[in-house]
Write a structure and sequence with these properties.
The complex is a heterodimer of chains A (about 375) and B (about 400).
Chain A lengths: L7 H13 L2 H13 L3 H25 L5 H9 L1 H33 L6 H18 L1 H26 L16 H12 L17 H37 L3 H7 L2 E2 L3 E2 L2 H30 L9 H15 L3 H41 L1
Antiparallel strand pairs in A: 1-2
Chain B lengths: L1 H18 L15 E12 L2 E9 L15 E8 L2 H8 L6 E3 L5 E4 L1 H6 L2 H9 L9 E4 L4 H4 L10 H15 L8 H9 L6 E9 L17 E12 L2 E5 L2 H10 L6 E6 L7 E18 L2 E18 L8 H30 L6 H8 L1 H7 L3 H7 L1 E12 L7 H6 L2
Parallel strand pairs in B: 1-4, 1-5, 5-6, 6-7, 12-13
Antiparallel strand pairs in B: 1-2, 2-3, 7-8, 8-9, 10-11, 11-12
Helix pairs in contact in B: 8-9, 10-11
Classes of the chains: A mainly alpha (about 375), B alpha/beta (about 400).
Chain lengths: ~375, ~400
Amino acid sequence: MKTVIVEPRQFFIWTFGLTVGTSVLVIPSSLAMTAREDAWIAALVGTAINLLMVLLYVVISRQYPGMSWFEIMEAALGRWLGKLAGGFYLFYFLILAGTLLGNLGFFLTSEILTETPIEAIQLLFLAAVVFAARLGIAAFARVGELLFPWIVFFSLSLILALLPQTEWTYIQPVLEDGWGPALQAGFHSAMFQELVVLMVFLPLTKQSGQTARHYFQAAGLGGLLLTSIVLLSVLVLGIEQAANSTFPAYALAKTISLGDFIQRTEGVLIALWILSFFVKTMLLVFAQLQGLQSLFRLRSYHHLIYPLAALILIVAWNTYLDSIYVAEIIQKVWANYSFVHLVVFPVLILVVGAFRGKRRRRVT
Amino acid sequence: MENRTRSRAWILIALLISLSALLSGCWSKRELNELGVVVAMGIDLHPRGYKVTAQIVNFKDAGKHNTSDVMSVVTYQAAGESVPEALQRMLSEVPRQLYMSHLRVLVFGEAMARQGLTDVLDFVARNHQFRTDFPLLVAHRSEAADILRVVTPIESIPANSLFSSILVSSKKWAATGRITLQQFITQLDRGGSDPVLSGVEVVGDKTSGTTDKIWHTLKPNAMIHHSGLAIFKRDKLVGWLKEQGSKTVNYLLNDVYTTNASFKCPDDEKQAISMQLQWVKSRIDVVLKGEELSGFNVNVYAEANLDSVQCPMDISQSAAISAIERKLEERIVDVFDQHVSKIQKRYDVDIFGLGEVLHRRHPKVWKKYKSDWDKHFKEVDVTIRAQVKLRRVGSIVQPLKKDMMNR
């Protein structure tokens, strides 16, 4: 598998897609609920936390050069413990991919295609995922390059078209209840970008120095895009509606009206979310395939694509019961669950790696 | 090898055939000839709950300039315990599926508005077909159904007529409000401000307005007329403002684009000087005394252009210009003072959003007043200051009357 080579530029696009995908659609409401007028500060805090996590991951990758995340865990925790931890990550990625698919289906069926069965939409999306998975990582990396200009174009047009409607007093007062709510919301939102997924793909790139730099830049840039969408949600919708919308970014797109002439663009801007969903789902699918391959020492993962797709669909149907249930899970459970995989395990590995490195140095 | 290519060919054929299943189109397709496009909706109270009136475009004629004798719209009516139920019931009369995304205006009957709008707005905000950018209106002294049953001249679709007259009048006249669903809901949920909505009424004979006879007369005997702003306490209508009061509110809400202002001539009470105001801006500042609220300062700034002068005064001196400016400033302060204190005394609802300003600027002070803001609003000092700059006098300098008298 190591023969596939991913350009640093393609890695940049992946990181960006992973940061923005889905978060852009749902994050504003939970931020506005906790941090109120300071939702944008919370989004910046979230970005900073994400960057710290990327720093953590890059340091770990320096300790174990050329290894993917699953291999690192085996090397650090020992074979069986490492495989167990790898299993946890596989499950984490599976749940993530499933909820993404569920989220996509719910979004489309509640806002646009209300009479279409949710299963039809999810199957169609999954068909594209399977198709892309069969073509392999290198092809998907190039698809990313094709999609990226569109993601940028749609995000920029969303932001620029909304500027005339901003009401700057809506973000006042700043820090009414101090930093507490902003930090809390920021920490909470940082648990939804799942940048650890990219550790599976890091060894596929050649110039690791440049890739690490792109890892940072894309996480930062994606965070800035999230921040500006959050800021716009508050500036245009006001916190009351931003917090009470099921899909605030879509509600935002609905309000676009340039000179009473360019209106009703939300149907086009949906492409932004679907494209970023696609990038994120694909990365999770490839991460699982790679993980399965390395945990069970398989020669190829091609025969696993269909079963995995079926599994994701089943997870989607059984986790995304209704939007209120999911919102509750997201508020109460998910951040902590995610925290274990995004911070606790990596820190553990870092500490173990540091000890081993010391011991190795002493031996030599 | 050959076997393999053959089986591949079979798979391909099977795939192609299965694709034909997709040719029927998607589940959520909506053909134009199956849709009843609702352009205006009116909601009134009814013993059963709500009575919904919908104005639906008659596609046979829409688009053409009303040359044929078919009406461009038809109104339907149905009642139900909730608005969606009434809309469902309406399908027993309407031959098409109702489509809400092109709604231009939503009108509430006065009785309905007095009872409260939240229950209906919940449906409108929740349903995915409704957009959030159409204006809400209240029928003044009548039912919403009456408003939607008047045929309008010039614009053959009455909903469009209502919509564009709201746009034009709020931009040029400033005594109406273009308050959209989104703005209304935001103000409803927010502490320290109460919403207003624009009012409409039918002037003339309500029953004769329903036929296209209006298109064949120079002076229609029924017209829709914009009638000031409706004041809400939370979601309930509590009173109406007339022209000057509405303008005052719009000035303070910074919603005035251009408008007209006039005052009496210095030496003739019957004549007036009238001006067009542009670039109107107002700024509300909080005055604190230590940690206590002592009042609000409202600064109004406007640029004026001379529109008509009916008094024989000498305009060619810059002293005259500044005299006019001072006079207009006085007049603005007078009118605003009068209406602001009237709204404070009579309604005790903060439609100016003063509480909101206090909250945004001084969150700590706001906490003390938050719980009983309505009471504080009633007694708070509002000082109005105006600054007017007369920039242009128009195409002639001296008043015609002066030239005529000097002859």
